[in-house]
What we know:
two-stranded antiparallel sheet, 51% helix, 13 helices, mainly alpha
Amino acid sequence: MKKEQQNRILEPDLILPAVKLIKDYPGITTTELIIALEKNLVLSNEDKAINTGRKDTKFSQEVRNLVSHKNKRFFTYVKVTKISRREGGSSFVITNAGEAYLKKEENAAKLDGEFDLKYQVSIQSCDPYTSKNDLEFSNNREPHQVTIKGNKKWRTDPRISKTVLSDNEYKCEFSSIDGVSHITFKTKLGNEYVEGHHLIPMSAQTDFNLNLDRSSNIISLCPICHKQLHYGSLEEKVKKLKPLFDMRISKLSSESIDITFEKLVNKYYK
Length: 270
């Protein structure tokens, strides 16, 4: 894939957010869908670029391509109710398959929440690595999946997160950015309670050859900052995530783990 395309939102990236919007706004037209998606996604400069000899952007053309290319996945989840160029293009409603698709995504998100809660408990009860070699061995292990409640999850090592928390003296790393001490509460061991957060979520592992469960990809965060990244509005997520991304991306890139900020937000934070 060309580098310019790597920085853009393409048809496969649009399916989930588009289907969600069509469920919430039955009868939404293509033009209205473009406007709504622009508000729900973070566009790169490449997305905003105007197509040569035309008035539309590369992003709006990509949305229109979902329809003109008769994207098979998209038209499994939605159907056209009306076609009218004068009224903003085709209008859409969700299908039963689309409802099932969103339900599956919702259940996966709930499982992610349960899995993270257990992961944070495991972090608190384990010891950090004291050997650099042992830490590097775990960082660079082969990614491995386990099945939980019928869903596949990538195995994580809580000792890596505990090491990151310990190295940061159990402080929220965002506090070094905004200059405010993010005090939470004391644990039984007398440390401030902080949580381990994968900057690039483990759900992205299929897009990377190297293990994402590694110290360079884990950030020590207070519970409020952590939950803001998972459950905040797009504006709240971007406000918190962008400085953390800028702080870590050079280190990740040096380990051959590359991703743009726009891809990080749009593909993995729904």
